[in-house]
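Hey,
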Amino acid sequence: MEETQKIKLGISIGDINGIGCEVALKTFEDARMLDFCTPILFASNKTITQQKTDLGIDITFNGAKDTSQAVDGKINIVNVWKEAPQIEYGQATKEAGALAIQSLKAAVKALKDGEIDVLVTAPINKNNIQAEDFKFPGHTDYLAKELKGESLMFMVADSLRVGLLTDHIAVKDVAQAITPKLIRNKVAVMEKSLQMDFGIRRPKIALLGINPHSGDNGTIGEEDDKILKPVIQELFNKGTLVYGPYSADSFFGSNTHQNFDAILAAYHDQGLIPFKTLSFGKGVNYTAGLDKVRTSPDHGTAYEIAGKGKADESSFKEAVFTAIQVFRNRMEYMELTKNPLQKQKIKRGA
């Protein structure tokens, strides 16, 4: 892709009863955003018309049957469904869940087929999306199945980057789920993403301990000593700049995180509580490790303010910018790491 060519940015609209449509439309209500990409929302003209009318959002859009009809310089709506669904702001309805799945599946297919370059997903409700053909706890698990690679839930906000060893599993299952193989895989995905997606040549990675005080030399649990420490040492000896395990309770408060390019937390809340506290609602959920680029805002459906026009689009806007930047970085990385001998053969017409 040429540097001047606009990225086709797909958007799955999430739960229509939440704030997904609102933050997406508010983001592109600012016409300057159209200078950076061509947005393509997977929904329907009727749904978006009702949302913008209800919320008082001043936009015009181009309705399209498919992505080939997307127009540069406009917000584009690919009609995934034709009916006018019942919008019940703040309510977790079965219909809203079904439409969220339809939008997501259509967007992911377009991503896989190369019809869009990147995907930004608006928030879904993990309960009402469950169906016979969709039994996933969230976006990340579905994307990991549909796309190539090994996924890593990676929360990013400027220089703060927090990944997860385990994501949407119960706390009681965390220790058993963390194995040497899992640690090696997640560190490898994180290191590669930092190099390829964020342009960091020799990334430094910190691992947080599983137990309080990283087990206190086995007093509060043996997992840190028996599982984490040996693998960290093994990886470091092989040239990966990985350090730890660090006691999670003081790691962020002491600003130790600023010494690293990324942090790998043992489980969901251990990583996301400090991340969301420090990122002030402008964080982005990035699914690293896959062959396609997907980002999402770091918030949920926010039913309590849905339909009231109060939603802050900052995180969604950051998700758009992050997707664009990661895509550009990947293209540059791939160009720089191409086999130089192969490039010479191409030039010679071999």
